[in-house]
Amino acid sequence: MNELPQGWCVFDEAESLAHQAVELILNTAEQAIAERGAFHLVTAGGTTPNRCYELLREQKHQAWSKWFIYMGDERVLALDDPQRNSVSLYQAWLSSVPIPAENIQLIPTELGLERAVALYNQTLAAVGTFDLVMLGMGEDGHTASLFPAQQNQLDSADVIGIRSAPKPPSERVSLSYQRLANTRVMLKLISGVSKHEALQAWLNKQSLPINQLMAQQQTYVYIDQAAYSGVKSHLI
Q1: Do the Cβ atoms of 217 and 10 come closer than 8 Å?
Q2: Residue 184 pLDDT more than 60?
Q3: For residues 204 and 196, what is the distance between their CA atoms, to the nearest angstrom?
Q4: pLDDT (average), residues 209-232
């Protein structure tokens, strides 16, 4: 088997992956705050990112007041619906750390798809390059709410509305390809045996949303052994 591409790392299990991801997040935050006075982080939904948030909650000596939080995507659901990414984000992390409320920019999908898209585009218009974007990957290779079958999502806007997502709920709001890529560092988190097929397709150079995105400076791909086991070759 060929050597892993630069920036890729395979971990024995998802827990060690999450710990290493948190170390990268904290190091990136420290550097951003030292250089620019703030850390702008785009969060992802899913099991593996949620474990990262739980670990971040345990950090005691962070400059939380200089952290600014955004979302890669959100489902169009009621504010307290447990399927919303924001609910998990608060439960796992944000409700337990003193990040100022004005620094937390959720996608207001409780107002409906069109209104949420318009408002979040306004929010991001005042934000420059992100410092770090976290991304997960679905079983079909989608990331955020950018799906393989919906290539019309190659939109020039920062934020786009998804009306017919192939998995429920069908209505979602997502950052666009170009806005997600407007970051200094990108961290892709891939875990679980269900991701094996999409990971194999990725390494075989099949075009998927997850592999269309690269950061300006450094892109990291963290994979656990369950997702990676049995991959036949690296063709990147």
Answers
A1: no
A2: yes
A3: 12
A4: 92
Q: How far apart are CA 143 and CA 16, in angstroms?
A: 22
Burial class of residue 15 in the structure, from the number of CB atoms within 10 Å of its CB (0-12 exposed, 13-18 middle, 19+ buried): middle
Q: What DSSP state is assigned to residue 5?
A: P
Strand order in the sheet with 73-75: 73-75, 172-175, 159-162
Element (H, E) at 42: strand 39-43
Of 86, 45, 48, 41, which Cα lies nearest the Cα of 64?
41
State the pLDDT at residue 137. Answer: 96
- pTM (predicted TM-score): 0.95
Could you tell me how far CA 172 lies from the centroid of its own chain?
15
For the chain, what is the mean pLDDT?
93
- The residue type at 224: D
Secondary structure class of 166 (helix, strand, coil): coil
pLDDT band (50, 70, 90) for residue 46: confident
Structure token digits, residue 33 = 């705050």
Instruction: Tell whether the model's pLDDT for residue 154 goes beyond 80.
Output: no
The residues, any chain, with a CB within 8 Å of residue 105's CB and separated by 6 or more, are 68, 69, 70, 71, 120, 123
Cis peptide before 169 (omega within 30 of 0): yes
Greatest Cα pair distance in the chain: 50
CA 151 to chain centre: 19
Contact 180, 145 (CB under 8 A): no
Among residues 198, 191, 200, the alpha carbon closest in space to that of 230 is found at 200
